[in-house]
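pinned: reference chain
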Amino acid sequence: MENLKSKVVVITGASSGIGEATAKLLAQNGAKVVLAARREDRLQSLVNDIIQAGGEAVYLPTNVTSAEDMQKLAQFALQQYGRIDVLINNAGIMPVSMLSELKVQEWDQMIDVNIKGVLYGIAAVLPTMREQQSGHIINLSSVAGYSVTPLSSVYSATKFAVRAISEGLRQEESPASHIRSTIISPGMTQSELTHTISNPDIQAMVQQMTGISISPYSIARAIAYAINEPEDTGVNEIVIRPTLQP
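pinned: its structure tokens
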């Protein structure tokens, strides 16, 4: 993991699950991680753990649905380390439901976090990366971004959108600015995503299915692999799911 050393990596949704695992793994391999999430106490604890283990980390409480917050996060990273090498747009929510339940507020929240949050992250770091003529933007999609199932209509729509945005970014920026774009699409992974499901019956059903979930470190290792590849190599898309997941 030689290419990870000293890279400045901004991670959203860093307070738990895939974000937390990725922060720890990258810091263990010499990256300087800038952690963002809404829960400051979790961020502080994570930063302390990383520093105690010999890594380098800072944090800023951030709401990805705020373009202003994401701009502040990018400026914070630049103030701390002078550059931004990687942005990992990891923050996401999954309050799945039947369309007939008409959970319009939850649909709006998914669009705000899962789509706008990704776009606001890109907007915050792209000028710096274009000026550097280097950078890497990693967006977390999902296997739900490839197929739709009952309950997942809106969630899948947001994850299809992440794939479209990521591919558009690759086509626009990789040849011109040397900015790499990667889509990471996890299957069932141990995380807090199911906690956002408001229908208790659906939550119980989904949680029963998560018995085969893989560790978030499996996703973190895929992210580390994509970053570690030489600058002339773009790892554009990785789908990673439990062996037992249909």
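why pinned: The first helix runs from residue 17 to 28. Strands lie at 8-11, 32-37, 56-61, 86-89, 135-140, 179-186, 237-240.
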